[in-house]
Write the structure tokens for this entry.
Amino acid sequence: MQIRFAGIGGQGVVLAGVILGEAAAIEGLNVVQTQDYSSASRGGHSIADVIISKEPIYDVMVTKADVLVALHQLGYDTVKDSLKEDGLLIIDTDLVKPDRDYIGAPFTRIAEETTGLALTVNMVALGYLVAKTGVVKKENVEKAIRRRVPKGTEEINLRAFNVGYEEGSK
Amino acid sequence: MRYPFPVGKSDFIQGDEAVARAAILAGCRFYAGYPITPASEIFEAMALYMPLVDGVSIQMEDEIASIAAIIGASWAGAKAMTATSGPGFSLMQENLGYAIMTETPIVVVNMMRGGPSTGQPTFPAQGDIMQAIWGTHGDHMLIVLSPSTVQEAFDFTIRAFNLAEKYRTPVVLLGDAELAHMRERVYIPNPDEIEITYRKLPRNEEEAKLPFGDPHGDGVPPMPIFGKGYRTYVTGLTHDEHGRPRTVEPEVHQRLISRIFRKILDHRDEIISYETFELDDAEIAIISTGIVSRSAIRAVKILRERGVKAGLLKLHTIWPFDFEVIEELAERVRKIYVPEMNMGQLYHLVREGANGKADVELIAKIGGEVHTPMEIAERVVG
């Protein structure tokens, strides 16, 4: 399965990809995670690719995405053509105006309301994605979050992930 | 020995991180570097790990000093490494030659990015293949390895140290920005699962007096360690078996340089390694190295599904180059394609190897994206 996260620098797009990849690795699946970002540390487009498979993976980046998670219009516009025709588009409904069918929620707003921090938007969106697709098990993502987020921020990130997961389970 | 990362299990890490962990497991205890995208994460990991294994990681003022520092460390008895990318690799060229001339085991990692000059810092390329082989001046011989997966980045780093130690030579590990930053599931072995090679030390005073001789007939002289009781002269000038400068006698220069070539070329079979996919009955051969090999494997699968008898030769060692294997292949295939992320470098070596026995076509791509499998397959189908 090819999953692509698209946003702008500062939204934690790459970390969301890394955590999803780590969860897949914990499950014993083959996984490749790559990223593409402009040199700007904030504001430029930021793309993270995760390819998960039981077979060996030779691709280095998403060629035809099964799922595109778009957190910002700039990221969406940059890579929208890479989503398969019958692929799943998940968006932050406040920040992305798509030109095709989609599902989603106001992830950034939910993040602010839940944790007080807009930058936990990546975990909210990740929770939503995992609930909607079941690509990896919830508990493995939680394990990966504990390993990968900065020390002391585990609980806040887990809370954001779980709120996103609940939103996606509705 | 406790390692600062889990061993005997799989982990999900970047190519850069895999290089750093492999170096530690191979026995590297000295790292000197200067940060540069996309190799900085190797330095970061070394800065973190080295103090925990009683090693040293030091930031130098530039890449010239970085390679100079690891040459010194190697003569002091440490396994040593530096890592950089294009612009830094250019700065290292003079001292890379010094390491070849003084037969100093070192590992130099170049995570290639788009060039020339500062080029495309965050994007992958394969524009330094020829530079890795011929970048430093003068007649010389060294070893260049080229990984295509994070697991290979790990495995080839261990191999790079083993070859450097065994043949007393610099080894270049040629990766790229994609591999450097890509994360994959990698198996990090227990130390007792990997074979580690150490350089030959002088067994007696007689051998110690010949740090550039050939007492064992294999072209590789034992290497004394600074401060361990012998008097050794180390110079980049042409020198005799004792290390003394002898710059005006043609035969001294011939003897030294021939031996530096011979010690590697006589052991070609052990140094050269490659992998083949579906090549036995192939009519079309793809030859690739590094990151592009991933797309080439997929391209072979696509072509086979379409009834085209395609196969892949994936080169792990790109110098010394296996011209013979290319010629044998050229004799039995219709055509050879060489996809690479530059305007044509490996292509020229393959053409020399093919020796006119098969048509060789370059599939060049620059700009920062790896060839897609379809791009390769479509060129083959035409």
User: Anything to note?
Assistant: The interface with chain A takes residues 10-12, 121-122, 178, 181-185, 291, 294-295, 297-298, 369-370, 372-374 of chain B (CB under 8 Å).
